[in-house]
Amino acid sequence: MIEDIAKNLVQLKKEFAKIYDGKSQIQEVIPVSKSDLFPILQQDLELLHQFATKNPIYYNSFEKTIDDIPCIVYEGDINKYWLNSIQHGSSRAPFSPTWIMSAYVGVLFAKELGYREVIDIGSGDGRIAFCAKVLDLESYSIEIDDMLVDLQKLLTILDFHPYCSDAITFDYSSLNLTQPIFFIGGLAQMGGTALASGVLEKIDSVTNLKKTAWVFAGTYSQKYPLDPKNEAGWGTLIEKNNLQSIQTISLPTVWTFHEPEETPYIFTQTVSNQ
Ligand SMILES: C[S@@+](CC[C@H](N)C(=O)[O-])C[C@H]1O[C@@H](n2cnc3c(N)ncnc32)[C@H](O)[C@@H]1O
Description:
Elements: H1 2-19, E1 26-31, H2 42-54, E2 58-66, E3 69-76, H3 79-85, H4 100-112, E4 117-121, H5 127-134, E5 138-143, H6 146-154, E6 162-164, E7 180-184, H7 192-206, E8 213-217, H8 235-240, E9 243-251, E10 263-270
Helix pairs in contact: 1-4, 2-5, 4-5
The structure holds S-adenosylmethionine (SAM).
């Protein structure tokens, strides 16, 4: 069922991209109400709308029916945050967000897999961590950029625990994690590999966690060098860290709005030796 919601969201994005004639730098849509194609709790949808409405990256919103689904379109601009995010010496990825609906669907899947805590690494405006809270999971948001963390603090309608820190040096033992799933922000080829490797190493050195899950945002775009082990750029890291692929779910992101292919989110977990 989650796969169906993801497919319906991709279809909605494709239709929206076809008819959108606005000029905003970024745009995304959220359905107004629960429907057969989006069987999502109405109270959850309302929280997603609150997150978008309060979020200073959006300066305009309007109603639009897309493929018979009444939606709100949010239009915005991330330039100032993008510029600030690239100024940090140890930054491994510039700021660009996934869609809020994609964050929700990704976390729905994490919850179905049985994970209890979502750690949003390189969290941008914190939307993945926020969605985890909407879905009643514990969540932590680690972001290196102070301007983005200040923005996150405006958006703690539910407290998703924003931390301003380099995720590679963050002390994860302080979170007392039990069954965590880590969402890594950033494409492998853009610095994501270094970010994920650093966090994997840190988790290994400071916690005794037997089982962890890792979600990577990939790309099939020919703009980027291919990974010889595939997995949308993540194959080598997955193999090196003895991770097992669970499933890949394609979802819309801001950076693929004008692209024919969505962003593949690769869900993996550590292989248990017991
Ligand atoms: C592509 S954005 C992803 C944002 C968010 N996860 C999403 O999907 O909407 C990557 C984010 O990672 C942050 N970042 C880069 N290197 C980092 C590091 N070493 N520690 C923490 N955050 C980092 C950037 O500032 C940026 O906001």
